[in-house]
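cron nightly-structures :: item 1 of 1
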Amino acid sequence: MNSEPHWKKSMTDVFAGMEIFLEEGDYEKTVGLPTNEIIEHWSGFVDWKGKTNQDVEMEILAKAEELIQNEGELMEGVHYILDFFKDREFKIGLASSSPMRMINGFLDKFQLRDYFETLHSGEHHEYGKPHPAVYLACAQELNTNPTECLVFEDSINGMIAGKAAKMTVVAVPEAHNIQDPRYSLADLKLTSLKEFDEEKLAKLRN
């Protein structure tokens, strides 16, 4: 699911309520980080108007959850790629920076839960993406060597986390980020999940 626009809007709305206005590029600095780390980052630059980091985090989470439930849409090709690997009897796990309550919410909204053998949230680890902890925990739960794992990521921090975990990473950036040279770190870059096929899988395996 492409939840990033909803996270951005929720941050924008909550920050605006405190008369904090960030530039467009500022939001890109924290894409893919857990919410608590995002708030920790900005707390060093802005005044929360008497609120604590936790207050601001809870406001952003509540707003993002509302937006995702009401307006959220799946990234193009999600069902395609999940069926692709399910049909080939791959073990499938989900490793996300989002809180578990949001993970559960959108899995239920889009009826995707049955695809996954394990779910992991960055909130359960001391460090979120780009640290590899959430990916390593997911691999351990799947009883799989990290070097045998294939990761699909849409953010820079997520891609770095996958590579740091010594996993093979397929990057599927948002359209406005597709030319970002940092995505060259990925083992494969796609414009859509639907571009992935048996030939690309074979190349990555080799």
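cron nightly-structures :: done
The chain has a mean pLDDT of 90.
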